[in-house]
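Minutes, project check-in
Item: structure for the 96-residue chain
Input as provided by the requester:
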Amino acid sequence: MTESSAVEIEIATRRLMAALDSLESAVERRRDADRDENELATRIQALGADRSRLADELDGALVKARKLERTNREIADRLDSAIVTIRSVLDTGEDG
């Protein structure tokens, strides 16, 4: 083997090592990116679950609010009726 062949082999070996280093770096970056994507997907899934839970809670709160409004109206109607009855009794008592 000539000296120029040895130099060429040395150059080729260094290029190969550099290429392997670059490949290794690329693989590591890809692993990091995949890990980040998985973490993001997990977070998105958790946010979706939270959104569903909050939507259910909101629906329940709206149902309760409607029931309270209905009950409030019924109580107000009964109070109005009781006030009318009491006034009527008082007016009758004053006339007598």
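Outcome recorded: The first helix runs from residue 3 to 95.
No further action items on this chain.
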